[in-house]
């Protein structure tokens, strides 16, 4: 069982394609959204927050997310646009991007450089 929350988004598919809906599933109001692309083979993130909550969706390709909440560590691979990983403020997260990946991020707060914690948890 994971220490982190991975949501399965409602998806409808037929011969015309698939439609995935994110409607009322996030436990916070979305204030900011952004997407990361062109990061093939690179790592991004490498921080946690004081207050901001986030939801990550790999729209294309595959993104491996290393998560650490100070107690548990886990690598979670997002490889389908119907997967949504919740990132709580306490969660150190670092993403590694596969070829052609596009990561969509929903955030509970606007950008504030003072909200970032760039120090990972110390392990004994």
UniProtKB/TrEMBL annotation:
Residue intervals of the Sugar 3,4-ketoisomerase QdtA cupin domain: 5-118
SUPFAM superfamilies on file: RmlC-like cupins
Pfam families assigned: FdtA (PF05523)
Signal peptide feature range: none
Domain of life assignment: Bacteria
InterPro entries: QdtA_cupin_dom (IPR008894), RmlC-like_jellyroll (IPR014710), RmlC_Cupin_sf (IPR011051)
Bilayer-spanning residue ranges: none
Protein name: Sugar 3,4-ketoisomerase QdtA cupin domain-containing protein
Organism: Rhizobium leguminosarum bv. viciae
């Amino acid at each position: 069982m994971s220490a982190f929350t991975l949501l399965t988004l409602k998806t409808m598919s037929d011969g015309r394609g698939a439609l995935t809906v994110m409607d009322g599933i996030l436990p916070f109001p979305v204030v900011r959204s952004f997407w990361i692309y062109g990061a093939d083979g690179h790592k991004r993130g490498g921080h946690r927050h004081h207050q901001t909550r986030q939801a990550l969706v790999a729209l294309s390709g595959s993104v491996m997310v290393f998560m650490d909440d100070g107690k548990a560590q886990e690598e979670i691979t997002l490889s389908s646009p119907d997967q949504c990983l919740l990132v709580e403020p306490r969660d150190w997260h670092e993403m590694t991007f596969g070829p052609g990946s596009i990561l969509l991020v929903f955030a509970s707060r606007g950008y504030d450089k003072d909200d970032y914690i760039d120090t990972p948890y110390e392990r004994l």
